[in-house]
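thread: overnight batch results

M.L. [08:02]
morning all. the overnight job finished for the chain we discussed friday. pasting input first so we're all looking at the same thing
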Amino acid sequence: MSFRSDPLSELVVPDGTTVEEHDIVTDADVIVGTQSTISLGVRARNVVAGERVTFDGDIEASADCRLDMWCAVDGNVLVGADAYIGERVEIGGQLVVAGDLDIGDDVTIEEGFDANGWIVIRNPVPTLVFLFTYLTHLLRRGEEELADDVLSEVFEGHDDQPLVVPKNATLGDDAWRVSTPARVGDDCRLHGNLRAESITVGANDEIFGSLRARESITLDRGTVVHGDVTTSDGAVEVAAEAHIRGDIACERLRLHEGAVVEGQMRARGEMTVVRAQRGVGTSKSDTETEAVTSADDVDGTVESDDERTEPDGSKGSFTPPE
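M.L. [08:03]
and the structure it wrote out:
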């Protein structure tokens, strides 16, 4: 995991994340920014939550769990290693800790707790406040490598991308809402409408909901979206073999051959079709066919009498039309 910029500046869903039985399930760590609401349970490796975070389900951490002050969990908290519980945290179920428990004052645990290791009653320093204050100080001194080492040590040396929820976010079965960009990895299965500043979706994902962003939206190969894809000011790019079971409405549209859109396509600006062709004696390459359209609805494939063809090497990454 790298700390070259603010790690809470976007919603990041790592590869292989799924939503199962009202739980977010990932093999990676989970970091939740302050004042966020998670209307789901969480099953992950390490779980770290900032101040005033609300969970409407159980938390199952195979390693450590750190809940800062005034967090609320409407369920059980099951921890495979050590737990750090800040003051005035409320847990509606049981707290079960396989290792040591570091717990603050005025913590409410409705159904009791059990810890196999040492139990220390004090007020732990808020995890995210201390961690990011220290890392910010290192970055200001230009010690980026040391900041990376510290962050890797906190998360037991794991280099894989954690699931990151920015502050003031809302995640639930009906919608995932953030005011930052959102990035979804490969092979994910998510439930709920995704609302963000911009959205990047990886390959072979399945999203049971719509996508809406103020800026651009990109969908990689093999991804299926069970809903509409809408931007207010940005562009939409749909890679080959992606499938949208709804409408597209955007400022500019770039559609790769082999993509399927079951609904209507509306683009206020340019609409570009990227066609795959095989030339004689050459390897397979993509060529780009541009068509400038009006705001009228376009169903099915896009055709234009005035087409311009040129090589395209983007392979699914968004390249704004000229």
